[in-house]
Amino acid sequence: MSLNTWMICGLALYVLFVVYVGFLGAKKIKGLSDFAVAGESMGPIPLGLAFAASFFSAATFMGYVGFCYAWGATGLWIFLAIFMASTLGFILLAKGVRNTNIELKSISMADWLAKRYDSDVLRGLCSIVFIIQIFYIAGQFSAGGSLLSGMIQGLDYTTAIIGVTVITVLYVTVGGLFADIYTSIGQMCLMIFAGVFVFISGIMMFKGGLTEVSDLLAAQNPNFVTVLNPDSLHMYSYAAVFGVMFIEFAFAGQPQLLNKIMALKNPKDMSKMIWTWIVASFCCLLVMFGGLYMRAIDPNLKVADMAVIEYVKLFHPIISTILSVAIVAALMSTACGLILVITTCISNDLFLQTLVKHRIIPMEQDEAEKLAYRMTKVLPALIGAFSLYLVFNPPPFMGVMVWIGISGVSAATLAPLIFALFMPKLANAKAAIIGAIVGEGVYFYLYLIAHIERSVMAAGACGVIVSFIVMYVLASMWKEDTKKAQAIRDAKLAKK
Predict the structure, then answer these.
(1) Which tens digits make up the pLDDT trace of 58-70?
(2) Helix, strand, coil percentages for the chain (3-state, nearest 5)
(3) Which one, out of 169, 177, 275, 473, has a CA that is 20 to 30 A from the CA of 161?
(4) How far apart are CA 348 and CA 105, in angstroms?
């Protein structure tokens, strides 16, 4: 059979799998909590795989591979940043969030922050900020369109992204987090295979292994084998590399990842979840070497993000199909998690817990809860449609679009999260709100408005640092207010 035929069959089987699992998940959903955090009922290994599946997206399998193709070995800084900084972030943030959620019973990051600070203003602010993640979703759909239109003859980019969007929206709408986690197990197995295969195949392809690859890259451009590449968007200086490391640390606190942590049934199993992540992440990140291999093979690709697609075409159609489906799995698992988070933020945090709770929208509680749950059946389609609007023209580097969303969220939320977990005596609601606004403002100004910083990750890191400083100064000034607020919060919890 031709590659086209194998691709169509492979994708058909994969679509049947995710839709079937989506409908299995639907049987377990009884309300908003089940939709958002699976009723806090999941085991550590499935959640560790789901955490990794949501973490590793099309940015990993196409965008970061594209970085390595465009800028050489310098791109591997992202490998190191994810494996070290993100793992550290996961270890530091995960246990604290899950342990405190025993008491808080939150179903989203915005919900957790609001309850921890006793502030629905912070809840509403975070919910609005999380909507920036639509750029992240758009990056996944863009990658899906590029991949499928590049692998299947006769399939155009627009049709491809519409197909990916429809399938993703369908199974997240029907199955919620149950479907997200269950499909993630199969998706993660495909991604692990893809990463390991790409790495080993390249070593076998080049007789001199990585040494030969390095020599070929150096012959094209000496900067391809230097520690820093001045031509790179993100790794052109040690300060920029620090920004990459910092944002990858912050990535562990992203809302689509924290909801996986909140779903863990037994907090004592957190170490098993973390070790599952460590093994899975290392295997997945090996795919980045595909960018270096493809650069050595063909330095004339017009679009760097297509490097992994061109590389998988070098193998038997069955292998090419498996690898391609793995990339589709990566982008769909991430998009699913993001759609889930944004839907929860709008239906629960903005509508139910802010607008209805404070009588901005006058409704009876029972009626409002039913409406909020019904919103989860409509919002995914609207989010998917808006994401499509952003990607009818693919960006030069899909990874940049992804990091617009990630950096935007981190600039506003990481400081309040860290203060709540590690500096509770300075966890002041007003300071958190102002710090979040200032951090987000700095990020927007540096990257999106004034274009002072060319690395979106470095701009995001600057936003986080400024947010942290502002929050620390203000919280230090308002220590007495923090003590009073803490006493009120403790009293409320005691009543519950």
Answers:
(1) 778 888 898 899 9
(2) 85, 0, 15
(3) 177
(4) 13
Return all residues near 88 (Cβ < 8 A) that are at least 6 apart.
249, 252
Separation of alpha carbons 359 and 365, rounded Å? 10
Report residue 259 as tokens: 């909801």
Whole-model pTM: value is: 0.81
**Residue at 31: amino acid letter:** G
Backbone angles phi, psi at 303, to 5 degrees: -120, 115
Tokens 């808006």 sit on residue: 386
Identity (one letter) of the amino acid at 79? F
* Distance in angstroms (rounded) separating the CA atoms of residues 424 and 421: 6
By three-state DSSP, how is residue 107 classified? Answer: coil
Summarised one tens digit per residue, pLDDT across range 406-458 is 888 889 999 999 999 899 888 899 999 999 999 999 999 998 888 888 788 88
Q: What is the DSSP string of 218-274?
A: HHH-GGGGSSS-TT-SS-SSHHHHHHHHHHHHHHTT-HHHHHHHHTBS-GGGHHHHH
Burial (CB count within 10 angstroms: exposed 0-12, middle 13-18, buried 19+), residue 238: exposed
C-alpha–C-alpha distance, residues 494 and 496, integer Å: 5
Number of H-type helices and E-type strands within the chain:
24, 0
Residue pair 294/301 in contact (Cβ under 8 Å)? The answer is: yes
